[in-house]
Amino acid sequence: MADCDYARFTTRSGRAYALCRKVAVYALQLPAAILAAMQQEAATDVCFASEQSFTPVPAVCIHRRADSGDELPYSSPSESTEALQLNPSACDPSSTSKKRKRVVDEPPYSSPSDSTEASQVNPSACDPSSTSKKRKRAAGVPLSRHLRSIRREEEFAAHGHGANDKRRSKIATQAAVEGTDLGLKELPAANGAYEARREEECEGRAYTLDEAKALGLKVFHWDGRQPVAFVAPDDTVFMVLAGRPNDADYDAAASRVYEAFRKESDSVQFTGKYAGSRRGVFSVINVGVSRGQGLAEPVYLGCHSHEKLVSALLKNKDVQRMASYASAAFATWAPRTYNYYKTQLDKLFHHMNHLPRIFRRSIFPAAAFNLGPSVVTFRHRDMKNCPFGMCSIQALGKFDPTKGGHLIVWELGLIIKFPAGSTILLPSATLSHSNVTIGKDEERASFTQFCHGGLFRWVDYGFQTEKSLCESNPTLYAEVCRLRPQRWQVGLNLLSTLDELKCGGFDSGV
Fold first, then answer.
1. Which is the most buried residue in 142, 323, 374, 398, by most CB within 10 A?
2. d(CA 356, CA 128)
3. pTM across the whole model
């Protein structure tokens, strides 16, 4: 060894020099090692597999309890009517909790398909933005962040939004509570509880704030931020003023969503059904999966005449953020109902994999862009929506919320102040609602998300019409008819009580 080399290895600076050389060599070899590891992971990790080779996995909670032989909810029952019975503890990860629990029944005939394939649910199989497709890492995004993003999306695909008990308890405890004398059982749900009864024809007009007050309605002052839970006499939470995140970026996002609404709508001439409806005279576009009256099966409302506008709004990151917040609020305040939505809709999108999900991180299969510039609804109910579920309404625009834009909930006799950027969850199928007019120089729009109850009926009947079910399986059809009157109460039992939300550890399954 030369003297200079010996000096390098026998002095402190020399040893540091040698260590630096080793680090440099390893650093040069690291990218190749990472690439090899990624290639090996891609060969085995399901999140990198193609959609065609993706193997569907059973839905969460589709299994049998070890302590009983009962079939759990939505597990593809056989011809036996036992499969239609109700299991109050399904999917409850904390069923041993000592807190008070509500006995929750499984909605009758929730999965009558004889095919075992129907119970194999791949929640991302039909999602055009799902992680089952190989996703390329965007330029400048670190690998670790990219992989975390994929894991989060996989977790959402499997479980959806779900606040843990501690967080849910904190939100429910800090929320304001408004008691009502509303009898939920008396709300106008249709027989079978897939939709609401037809409403009487209401006067097609909007009311000013003074006119609404003159009718005896009371103003409910709300800052648009603090959550407010409306509870029935039995402590059931049936409507929530869900507020908004305490984040200035979210406020800015809501403002940008309204600007996007205005920008897209200004470039289009709306006519016919897009220019107004029984709900009011304003431009509106419905998008998503629906099964309305007269449709043989669920279809995608693609709005082909305004496809470019719809595509731009669905891809808008701020619209997606607002959609995700509304879905998360639904999961927080009505976790059992949310899980019912997810279980049934996962089956639908798996069985009819040509139908797309409109938002990657929202449970709702359909939405309405009420574009404005003056969105003021008349008194109405959305009868086709799930009567025991919740729809989200998010106000947008530039208006004074103390003078107009309020949400009137007629059965409660309330005129609720509704600032732009805020979110309200309510059963729009059974509670009639409308808006207070705004000023002539003001602008208002809204973004709503919902789910038609006919989608659940389609799944419950084995992906067929009632007529087809009657012809193909008379025994099951007879059982469906027998249990139909019970379904409304079963749906109401999915709603949570305020005590459950505060205490945690309640049955979050369906």
1. 323
2. 6
3. 0.74
